[in-house]
Amino acid sequence: MKKVKVFQIGLGSFGRHGFEKFIEMDLNYSKVSVELVGVCDDDFDRLELAEKFANRQNIEIETYTSVDEIYNAAESISDAKVLIYDAGPTELHAEHIYRSLKNNFFHLAEKPPSMTREDHIREKKMMLDNNVRFTVDFIERENPVVKKCLEVLEDCNIENIEVFRESSMGIEKLLRPVNRAGVKGGAVLDKMCHEAYIMDFIDSKPEVNYVEKQAQMPYRPGSESLMGIRGGKKSEIDDEIAAGICSAKIDADIDIYLHASWLGLSQECRNSAEKIESITGHYPVKTDFRVIGASGVSDEEARFFLIRGDRDLIGDMLHKKLFDLETGEEIETNSLLHDQLYRVLESSVRCAAGLENNALSEEDLDRFMNVIFDISEHTEDYDVYEEVETANKRVKRMILDTLDEVETTV
User: Fold this and answer.
1) Is there a contact between 64 and 70 (Cβ–Cβ < 8 Å)?
2) Distance between CA 287 and CA 301 in Å, rounded?
3) Which residues contact 282 (CB under 8 A, 6 or more apart)?
4) DSSP letters along 277-307, please?
């Protein structure tokens, strides 16, 4: 049986879930011999909790406080393939990918794999020069709605796809900068980067037709500066400004429209959701209020796509529902044993073992990431003062200053 030894970087919110999935594979996976060897994090409490969790499952793991330590341990492995699961800080993904490729390790990075086009080009060159590869956890490719939609439309003509991925994550980041320090990139690199599954629907090279950034991210509520894609302060407009709300049209053999937001739902998203509800009876949007510190926050999220062509469909990835827009009837999705994250990790284990190649091809990954960077780097002759003022006004509308206001609104 093929052997894969896993080393994990990062035990943050998403990394913790991945850690639990690898523990499950270590115990029960029968197609590959999976061993979770060790985990790395700079937070001792997280490491202690991970070690205790593993011990309760009768699994011994090594814990490391630096990436150097984990790579030194991985380099000593000679009896199995090595898989590095990188759930660490986004800005370090490129550096970790380089190290894995140099050592012929299979590497799974949380999206985005790199924050800049320059990093992406370096990764691509190293991958080609060393004849090794890495993949990215574009998790929506494992969404049962996406999989069923591909199945339903296998022999159908598609005219266009319109995607909405919008939430108030940026508001939470502004109010909890320390807790959300690992969430970076703004509406494009954090949100649009999820839509890699569009590559499964097209057959030609995608190219950006137009980009509209309706709002940039302020550095803090009321700040006179903007936020950069790495989370830092920016005092001028350049290609590393984090977008708060962005729309883009992509030309391929079908037309693709992407809408993303860190600052709550756009009016286009609300209008589309209401139209969907009028046809299907299902409202593909989640709205609520959250209390963060002394403020109430309008908590909004939408993750759905509309496909038009021989068949008109709406896929709600948030609620795992698929509907026919002509009849309003729900289309049953396939019942899968494991969740999306488990299936992404399982696929990576099998890829590392040489049993499958379910990741996006290097060519498709390169094409998709170049589209994302084209959108992310798009700038216009914005006035910084006006952009900051517009962004702060939107943030203020979404934050209720007192708990009394929250209770009154609810």
Assistant:
1) yes
2) 7
3) 276, 316, 319, 321, 323, 330
4) HHHHS---EEEEEEEETTEEEEEEEEEEEEE
Query: Taking the domain 140-336+380-397, which CATH number applies?
Result: 3.30.360
| Token pair for 8 | 């994990």
Q: What is the DSSP annotation of 189-222?
A: IIIGGGGGGGGGT--S--EEEEEEEEEEPBSSTT
**Phi, psi (rounded to 5 degrees) for 213:** -100, 110
60, containing H or E segment: none
184 vs 162: CA distance, rounded Å? 24
Closest CA to 262 of 215, 319, 210, 316: 215
Dist. CA 183–CA 14, nearest whole Å: 11
Contact 65, 32 (CB under 8 A): no
Give the start-to-end residue ranges of the domains of the chain.
Answer: 3-136, 140-336+380-397
Paired with 162 in beta bridges are 257, 306
- Rounded to 5°, the CA angle 101-103-109 comes to 40
- In the structure encoding, which two tokens stand for residue 16, read together? 């913790």
Q: Which amino acid is at 39?
A: V
Spatial CA neighbour of 25 closest among 51, 52, 3, 49: 3
Distance separating alpha carbons of residues 153 and 201, to the nearest angstrom: 9
What six digits make up the tokens of 404? 């009394």
pLDDT, tens digit only, all 410 positions of the chain: 899 999 999 998 778 989 999 999 999 999 999 999 999 999 999 999 999 999 999 999 999 999 999 999 999 999 999 999 998 887 788 788 888 888 889 888 877 767 788 877 776 666 555 444 455 546 788 888 999 999 999 999 999 999 999 999 999 899 888 888 778 899 999 999 889 899 999 999 999 999 999 888 999 988 888 999 988 998 888 888 999 999 999 999 999 999 999 999 999 999 999 999 999 999 999 988 888 777 788 889 999 999 999 999 999 999 999 999 999 999 999 776 677 888 888 888 988 888 876 556 667 878 898 999 999 999 887 777 888 888 888 888 888 654 444 444 43
pTM for this one? 0.81
Range 3-136: architecture per CATH:
3-Layer(aba) Sandwich (3.40)
Q: Under a CB-based contact definition with an 8 Å cutoff, are residues 104 and 130 in contact?
A: yes
